[in-house]
């Protein structure tokens, strides 16, 4: 069999069945065909992409972000109108109306609530579980993973620093070795830098229940991201997706991985000028910190929705180099599963 025939040939049924078996726990947890979870990306993970993911056999997740409860209720209802399949909602734990958002999910019979952006309060976990929802939490270290399971988390996501957006300091390759051998009570999903099925297979074999992918789905046909935003992803390479740089430890900057553009360059200049004004006594420290933090306010929306890719925020994971064209979600999902099955079949001879 030549290389071209091998690349286009369907994977053997036995290999596909083996992938199904490796994904069985994660798929059962979500109620989906595959244990592939859509990463919640603000402005991108809305009704169209979420429903497309769930309809394709993956598991879509709405990014609530800064939405207020009535707006979230509207998005959930609109997603339910587009799919009969299960999907989840990602809530930011720092949201001032977290409890109301949990109740909104419960009122609309959302089966899975994903808490992100910090350790969720016990009251929020209890409210979600009492309302019949399964709780998913992000675990950045083994000690916290164990604590979250004791607190009632039904599943965990371990996300490496390769991911896009707000990131932790540790790569997925290290987190997986630290956490997967020790957490067996609940399903653990891996995230960060995953763009091909071979990588998903390797983590499944390490004990992961499935994988979360965000960057890979930004350029889905069903994604409402602006054509300029999609073009930036298709052009981008792994080395272009870098974390934000902090100039002075007295003024901490939350690390965010994004494609470099005019905005990222101006952010460095803005930090330098703000620090200069602080040292000159022109601005107090608290006000200077707020000026730095507010630089990116609205920047993600400007890029994703308005298409201002020079001044907006191009949050992207390092797997952006694996995004080469616009494709339907169903095609991407099948590509990932096929890659995993072909890799398994090749290894088995």
**Alpha-carbon Rg, integer:** 20 Å
Number of domain units = 2
Instruction: Give the end-to-end Cα distance, rounded to a whole number of Å.
Output: 13 Å
> How many helices in DSSP terms?
14
The helix content, as a percent range, equals 40-55%
**What percentage of amino acids are in beta strands?**
5-15%
Query: What would the CATH topology of the largest domain be?
Result: TIM Barrel
Secondary-structure arrangement, i.e. CATH architecture of the largest domain: Alpha-Beta Barrel
CATH homologous superfamily descriptor of the largest domain: Aldolase class I
The strand order across the widest sheet is 1-9-8-6-5-4-3-2
**Which consecutive residue ranges, at least 5 long each, have pLDDT under 50?**
1-6
CATH class of the largest domain: Alpha Beta
Q: How does the overall form come out from the CA principal axes? A: globular
The structure class reads alpha/beta
List its traits.
349 residues; alpha/beta; TIM Barrel; 2 domains; eight-stranded parallel sheet; four-stranded antiparallel sheet; 12 strands; 13% strand; globular; disordered N terminus
Task: Describe the 3D structure.
The protein has 2 domains: 3-225 and 323-347, Aldolase class I (TIM Barrel), CATH 3.20.20.70; 237-315, no CATH class. It is globular and about 70 Å long. The two termini are 13 Å apart. It has helices at 3-8, 13-30, 47-55, 69-80, 98-107, 122-130, 142-150, 172-179, 197-206, 227-235, 262-279, 285-293, 299-304, 329-347, and strands at 36-38, 61-63, 88-92, 112-116, 134-138, 155-159, 165-166, 188-191, 210-213, 241-243, 256-259, 314-315. The strands form 2 sheets. An 8-stranded parallel β-sheet has the order 1-9-8-6-5-4-3-2. Mean pLDDT is 95; it is low at 1-6. By secondary structure, the chain is an alpha/beta fold.
């Amino acid at each position: 069999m030549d290389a071209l025939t091998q690349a286009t040939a369907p994977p053997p049924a036995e290999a596909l069945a083996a992938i199904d078996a490796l994904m069985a726990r994660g798929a059962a947890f979500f109620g989906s065909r595959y244990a592939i979870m859509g990463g919640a990306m603000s402005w991108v993970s809305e009704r169209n992409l979420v429903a497309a993911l769930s309809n394709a056999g993956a598991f879509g997740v709405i990014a609530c972000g800064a939405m207020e409860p009535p707006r979230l209720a509207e998005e959930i209802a609109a997603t339910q109108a587009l799919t009969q399949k299960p999907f989840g909602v990602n809530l930011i734990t720092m949201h001032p109306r977290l409890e109301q958002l949990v109740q909104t999910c419960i009122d609309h019979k959302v089966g899975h609530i994903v808490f992100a952006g910090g350790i969720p309060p016990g009251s929020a976990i209890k409210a979600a579980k009492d309302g019949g929802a399964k709780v998913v939490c992000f675990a950045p270290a083994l000690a916290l993973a164990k604590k979250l399971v004791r607190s009632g988390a039904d599943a965990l996501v371990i996300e490496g620093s390769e991911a896009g957006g707000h990131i932790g300091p540790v790569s997925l390759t290290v987190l997986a070795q630290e956490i997967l051998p020790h957490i067996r009570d609940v399903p653990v999903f891996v995230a960060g830098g995953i763009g091909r099925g071979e990588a998903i297979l390797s983590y499944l074999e390490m004990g992961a229940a499935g994988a979360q992918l965000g960057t890979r789905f930004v350029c889905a046909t069903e994604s409402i991201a602006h054509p300029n935003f999609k073009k930036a992803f298709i052009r981008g390479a792994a080395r272009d997706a870098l974390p934000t740089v902090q100039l002075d430890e007295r003024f901490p900057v939350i690390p965010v991985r994004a494609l470099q553009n005019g905005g990222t360059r101006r952010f460095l200049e803005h930090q330098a000028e703000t620090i200069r004004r602080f040292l000159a006594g022109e601005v107090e420290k608290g006000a200077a910190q707020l000026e730095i933090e507010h630089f990116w306010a609205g920047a993600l929306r400007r890029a994703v929705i308005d298409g201002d890719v020079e001044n907006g925020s191009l949050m992207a994971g390092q797997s952006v180099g694996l995004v080469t064209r616009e494709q339907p979600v169903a095609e991407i999902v099948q590509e990932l599963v096929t890659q995993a099955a072909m890799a398994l079949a090749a290894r088995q001879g």
